[in-house]
Design a protein that fits this description.
The protein is mainly α. The chain folds into two domains: 31 residues, no CATH class; 107 residues, no CATH class. Helix content is 41%, strand content 10%. The protein is built from five helices and four strands. The strands form two sheets. Strands 1-2 form a two-stranded antiparallel sheet. Strands 3-4 form a two-stranded antiparallel sheet. A hairpin with a 6-residue loop joins strand 1 and strand 2. Helix 1 crosses helix 3. The structure holds zinc ion (3 copies). One zinc ion (ZN) binds next to helix 1.
């Protein structure tokens, strides 16, 4: 069977129908813009929301890590100031995976308090060790000592 072709309304390129996301009720059962254009639009939308949320929790209305000052948007994450990010995600999503849905959750819940902006490194270090080597005195650290030593022991038992 010969493959159907249609023209993407976004980029104007003629492409095989398999390069379009499925959608019932439309011509050939697919969307009017090709998968590449659709994905691009989704990621642009997600980036916009991510920046909006990060800016809301940033200090001085500046996109940067509160600990080390990194300004690369790609490195920044929302940190649960008092910890318990995994438990929180399990509570609202049923599993501990992160991703864009958490940013959507923040928007849908009217930007709850208790979050701040860190980069992946500072976030990881604070979560895993209860401190960050940057030693930023302005960073509030809430950490359960007991939890800390258990995690650390597990880590060392596993790798050393
Ligand atoms: Zn296209
Ligand atoms: Zn940082
Ligand atoms: Zn740091």
């Amino acid at each position: 069977m010969k493959e159907l072709y249609k023209t993407c309304t976004k980029c104007g390129k003629r492409k095989p129908n398999s390069k379009f996301h499925k959608q019932k009720g439309l011509k050939y059962g697919t969307r009017t813009s090709c998968a590449k254009c659709s994905n691009k639009r989704v990621s642009e939308y997600q980036k916009k929301i991510r920046i909006k949320v990060l800016l809301h929790y940033s200090k001085n209305n500046k996109l940067e890590c509160e600990c080390c000052g990194t300004t690369h948007y790609e490195f920044l994450v929302i940190d649960h100031i008092k910890g318990g990010g995994c438990e929180h995600r399990r509570e609202i999503f049923g599993d501990t995976k992160g991703g864009f849905r958490f940013y959507r959750w923040i928007v849908n819940n009217n930007y709850p308090v208790g979050f701040r902006v860190l980069c992946h490194n500072c976030n990881m270090s604070l979560g895993l060790y209860g401190y960050c080597p940057h030693n930023n005195k302005n960073i509030e650290i809430y950490f359960n000592e007991k939890k800390h030593s258990i995690k650390k022991n597990n880590f060392f038992n596993k790798y050393f």
